[in-house]
Amino acid sequence: MSRIVAKFGGTSVANLEKIEHAADKVAKEAGAGHEIAVVVSAMAGVTNQLVDYCRGISPVHDAREYDAVVSSGEQVTAGLMAIALQKRGIQARSWMGWQVPLLCDDVHGKARIEDIRTDEFEKRLRTGEVAVLAGFQGISTCNRIATLGRGGSDTTAVALAAAVGADRCDIYTDVDGVYTTDPRIVPQARKIPRISYEEMLELASLGAKVLQTRSVEMAMKHKVNLQVLSTFAEEVGSDLPGTIVMDEDKIMEKEVVNGIAYSRDEAKITLRSVADIPGVASKVFTPLAKANVNVDMIVQNVSQDDGATDMTFTVPRGDLNAAVDVLKKECTDTVHEIVTNTDVAKVSIVGIGMRSHAGVAQNMFQALADKGVNIQVISTSEIKISVLIAEEYLELAVRSLHRAFGLDDPQKA
Ligand code: ADP
Ligand code: ASP
Ligand code: MG
Hints:
Blueprint: E1 3-8, H1 16-31, E2 35-40, H2 46-57, H3 63-70, H4 72-87, E3 92-95, E4 102-104, E5 113-116, H5 119-126, E6 130-134, E7 137-139, E8 145-147, H6 153-163, E9 168-173, E10 194-196, H7 197-205, H8 213-222, E11 226-230, E12 243-246, E13 259-263, E14 267-275, H9 280-290, E15 298-300, E16 308-315, H10 320-330, E17 337-341, E18 344-350, H11 360-370, E19 377-381, E20 384-390, H12 394-404
Parallel strand pairs: 1-2, 1-9, 2-6, 3-6, 9-11, 10-12
Antiparallel strand pairs: 4-5, 7-8, 11-12, 13-18, 14-16, 14-17, 15-16, 18-20, 19-20
């Protein structure tokens, strides 16, 4: 008997028929004697609709009220899933984040989980009752409902799996695993049977939305056995049909490039002619950090004769206005001219084999050059290389890199 956390994403619970189908999977696992906690997302499209409602009343709104609104989608599916399980003769109940409780910080809209108190929750799991937890939500230090950022039900599931010492956390979604790139863009993309936490973390943080970044961070930290699998295939999680995210040392074949991620959620800011003297970068980036703006790629050009230089960096597109506001208000003596561009996208190649292989960057740049794609900014880490390009070339770049690194090759499947 295992203890399993099974998470169903929005497309897996998109309507009553799909909720019933997901309930069949849970029933099968419960019938095999496993202890099951289910985590559900809102029905597909519902969270977007709720976000639009908030914006429709006021583009700038109280994040605590935003959370009160957008967390409601998960409440509906948790109740419906519990009813579907009860219909199958399974003892089940729904739990909201505050009932567990799942305690978060008070950064509303993108709160972090700080603790999960599972005493009562686990007691009931042990009686064989299936717990159905509303994903994406917790309770903040100021006693208000908080949400964990878009895609946050993945993080609810992994955090819960860590808290209750689950043997496995199954993430049921609309693809049957983690692919070499988004199969919606490259139909030849292949399923990766096993992937390291490190690679998955890079892919997620670089835009592969199949798992929320924080969920992978948490899985890595707590060594949660994580599986990504299809809701719509025949198998259940215990058949292990999906992609297993696991420790690097347990993976024999270390691919040079294992996956390609992309993100359209990028904006480029160039500060023209800032002084090339110590302390300037700190003066620019400290107020941005305080305003919770996440700065990503950064380049500073060589100083021209006048001792001034251009500084370019990227921020999430949604944070662009806030970033420009902060720079205008708080950097008056440092920043004189700001140029912004939202017509950009980031493409990244990821693989742990990069640690021990030279020439990977060269292959990447050549493949892009062959297609006439201009690179605007480059950033690297030990296991990834990212480039910023014009958004119109994004799909072409992803497809070309997928081919250039042999990922189209069915032999590798
Ligand atoms: P859910 O609603 O189940 O949480 P998401 O839409 O958040 O599902 O994530 C699944 C989607 O992630 C897939 O439909 C796919 O388009 C996208 N995706 C992006 N990159 C990848 C990848 N490398 N492998 C698999 N899916 C990916
Ligand atoms: N429903 C939330 C969202 O759409 C959380 C999730 O699905 O993971 O972002
Ligand atoms: Mg998701």
